[in-house]
TrEMBL record:
Keyword Membrane: yes
Source organism: Stachybotrys elegans
Lineage: Eukaryota, Fungi, Dikarya, Ascomycota, Pezizomycotina
Protein name: Uncharacterized protein
UniProt KW keywords: Membrane, Transmembrane, Transmembrane helix
Transmembrane residue ranges: 38-62, 82-105, 117-139, 176-197
Length: 222
C-alpha cells in the first residue's frame, strides 16, 4: 500500500471517529438508564414478593380462624370483606411476573435483541395499571361500612392474644403490605418513564449510527 493510501485511510478513520464522537455520551446515558431501570425493577420485584408473602400469610390465618368452635365467639365480623386482601395478592403476583420477565430479558442476550424494548415498556405499564386499580379498589371498599382485614385487625390490635389470629401482628402485616403496594404505583411510573426515555435514546443513536454507516459506505465523489 502506498504512503498516499495509508494517509488517506488514517484520515478517513480520524474523520469517522470525529463523526461518531457525539454518540458516545448518549451511549453512556443509555447505559446509566438501563442500570437504573434494572435496579428499580428489582426493587419492584422485592416489594411485590414481600406483599405476596404478608398478604398470603394473613389470608391463611383468616382461613384458620374465621370459623369459630362450638363454644367460642366468632373472631371476625359478619360484614367482613376479604376482597381487598385478594386484590393485594393478585397485584403482587402480576407485578412479580412482569418484573421477572423484564429482568430476564435485560440479562439474557438472546432475548434482549428481539423483546428488549417491548417488554421493558409493557412490564412497568402493566404493573402501574394493576397497582393503581388495586389501590382504588382497596380504598373504595375501606370507605364503605364493611370491615376490611386492616380495619378490623387494627381496631383490635391492642388486645393481647396468646394464640391466633394475633390481631396486632396481622395489623402490622396489612399496613406494610398496603404501604408497599402504594409504593409500587410511583415506582412503576418511574420505571416506565426511564424505559421510554431509554427507548427514545436508543432509537436516536441507531438512526445516527445508520446514517454514518451509509455515508461511510457510499462512494467518494471524485
Amino acid at each position: 500500500m502506498s504512503t498516499t493510501k495509508i494517509e488517506s485511510s488514517v484520515s478517513n478513520f480520524e474523520q469517522d471517529s470525529r463523526d461518531l464522537l457525539h454518540v458516545y455520551p448518549k451511549m453512556r446515558t443509555i447505559a446509566i438508564l438501563d442500570s437504573s431501570r434494572v435496579f428499580a425493577t428489582a426493587l419492584a420485584l422485592a416489594a411485590s414478593v414481600t406483599v405476596l408473602g404478608l398478604s398470603a400469610d394473613a389470608l391463611a390465618v383468616y382461613s384458620r380462624t374465621h370459623v369459630p368452635a362450638e363454644f367460642l365467639l366468632p373472631l371476625w365480623p359478619q360484614n367482613f370483606d376479604i376482597r381487598p386482601t385478594h386484590a393485594l395478592i393478585a397485584t403482587s403476583v402480576i407485578v412479580m411476573v412482569t418484573s421477572l420477565a423484564s429482568l430476564a430479558v435485560s440479562k439474557t442476550s438472546s432475548l434482549r435483541a428481539g423483546f428488549h424494548t417491548s417488554i421493558n415498556m409493557a412490564a412497568p405499564l402493566i404493573g402501574f395499571i394493576v397497582s393503581l386499580i388495586s389501590m382504588a379498589f382497596y380504598y373504595g371498599v375501606n370507605a364503605s361500612s364493611t370491615h376490611t382485614f386492616q380495619s378490623w385487625t387494627c381496631r383490635w390490635s391492642g388486645v393481647p392474644m396468646q394464640v391466633e389470629p394475633h390481631f396486632e401482628t396481622l395489623c402490622q402485616q396489612s399496613q406494610v403490605g398496603l404501604g408497599l403496594t402504594i409504593l409500587l404505583v410511583p415506582l412503576e411510573a418511574i420505571v416506565l418513564g426511564m424505559a421510554a426515555y431509554q427507548a427514545a435514546m436508543e432509537r436516536k443513536v441507531d438512526v445516527e449510527v445508520s446514517a454514518h454507516e451509509r455515508k461511510a459506505s457510499s462512494p467518494a465523489l471524485s
